[in-house]
Amino acid sequence: MARSRLTPERESELYGAVLDLLREVGYDALTMDAVAARTHSSKATLYRQWGSKPELVARALRHNKPIKLTEIDTGTLRGDFQAMMALTDDCQMEKDTALMRGLAHAVHTNPELLQALRELLIEPEIGSMRDTLERAVERGEVSADNPALKYVPHMIIGAFVARPLVEDQPIDHAFITDYVNAVVLPSLGV
Q1: pLDDT averaged over the chain?
Q2: What is the dihedral of CA 76, 82, 85, 87, to 10 degrees?
Q3: The pTM is what?
């Protein structure tokens, strides 16, 4: 695979530059030329490594989430959710929310971006969440026939989308902890 030619440090530096540019100018205005200029690399190198802007952006976002949810297993669903929430601070949550808000608009006009985000970011995250929920079912914490199980990803994503819209407030630990305890866990019977 061509990607292996970059050192992990260089790859990380490139991904960081992509995310910075995304926050600064948004997806539509982000160009491979701008990434090349920011990272002192050639556009040809970027296309050889990533193939397209959507793939580069999706991989940068994936790289930004270094800890996989499947690595979290505290022995209880409540503990797993707490551990997940502890992975990021309020400042990072605000940055990530701003990034996702910008991308949410872009996916409507960029089917390749939507596909790349689904494959590289959304599906793996939802798969990890399903694994976490399956463990809770196996432990007997959640009933296997609980109808809310299939909606947990929707609930979590909904919280991130709704708070800025409904309350004009950023997502922070206090809100997401309260939301999980008041909405997600009770809906699962925990």
Answers
A1: 87
A2: -80
A3: 0.76
CA 137 to chain centre: 24
Q: pLDDT value at position 178?
A: 94
> Which has the higher per-residue pLDDT, 160 or 184?
184
Residue 128: which of 185, 184, 73 has the closest Cα? 73
Q: What is the CA radius of gyration of the chain?
A: 18
Q: What is the pLDDT of residue 1?
A: 40
Query: Distance between the two ends of the chain, CA-based, in angstroms?
Result: 44
